[in-house]
Amino acid sequence: MNDSTETVDSVRSRVASIFEQVLGRPVEPESDLFDIGGDSADAVEIIEMVRHWSGVDIDVLELLEAGVSVRSVANLVGAAL
Question: How far apart are CA 54 and CA 11, in angstroms?
C-alpha cells in the first residue's frame, strides 16, 4: 500500500468515526446523512468536528452539492490536505 492510499484510508476512517459519534451508530461510506436520519444540526456538528481534527474548513455549499456522506467529506478533506 502506498502513502497516498494510506492517507485516504486514514482520512475516511476518521471521518466515519466522526459520523458515527454524531449519529450514535455505524454508517456506510456512501450513505447520505439526511437519508439516514441526520439533520442540518448534525451536518454542522460533523463539519466542526472535522475542522477541529483536520484544520480543514469545509464550505457548506460545496458539501451540500457533493452530498453529506463519509466519502464526500473525506474527499473534501483529502483534497485540502
Answer: 9
- Contact at 8 Å (CB) between 40 and 75? no
d(CA 3, CA 55): 20
pLDDT tens, position by position, 8-60? 899 999 999 999 999 999 999 999 999 999 999 999 999 999 999 999 999 88
Contact 54, 46 (CB under 8 A): no
**Alpha helices (H) in 1-81, listed in sequence order:** 3-23, 40-54, 60-66, 70-80
- pLDDT score for 55: 94
Pick the closest to residue 46 from 28, 61, 63 (CA basis): 63
Topology adopted by domain 3-80: 1.10.1200
Please state the domain extents for the chain.
3-80
